[in-house]
Write a structure and sequence with these properties.
This protein has 189 residues and is an all-alpha fold. The chain has a single domain (2-182), classed as de novo design (two linked rop proteins) (Up-down Bundle), CATH 1.20.1440.20. The protein is 81% helix and 0% strand. The chain is built from seven helices and no strands.
Amino acid sequence: MEHLIWIIPVAIVVILVLWAIGTFNGLVSKRNETKNAWSQIDVQLKRRYDLIPNLVETAKGYMKHERETLEAVIKARQTCVDLKNAGNIGELMKAEGALAGSLKSLFAVAEGYPDLKANQNMLALQEELTSTENRIGFARQAYNDAAMRFNTAIEQFPASVIAGFGNFRQVEFFEVESPEERKVVKVSF
């Protein structure tokens, strides 16, 4: 009978240890899912950043008097590349808005150049950029979904206790801050 008295506390401790291990591993899995989702955004942003110099070079031959517009696009792109490499999500979100704005300006100015609008290179780049923008949108949605699952998991009790001990911290959502940034980049030539 005395042996049975010790079995219950030992069983409770074993269950608690197994629960803690399972919870910790679940949080690690969700954190890695979030990192993977961010990597998908990263891939698509790199694709966009690689397309922009080609777009500017194609437009440059036609838009000789629009140097400021072209330079603004290149500068905004470089800022985004630098911030992406630094891993600063909050600042990158702001810079992405500026890049979208400079691309809108480029496309608006390009409307005045009929030869540019008909250029096959420009049409191909337009298609690639449109496709890339869609991919970025999907990747952002997947990232935000993963971030929500991770943040929810580390906030819910009793997992929040394990999250505190395991030094799990909330991740930022990839959000658009200003109404201007929420507008779709028009890429028609």
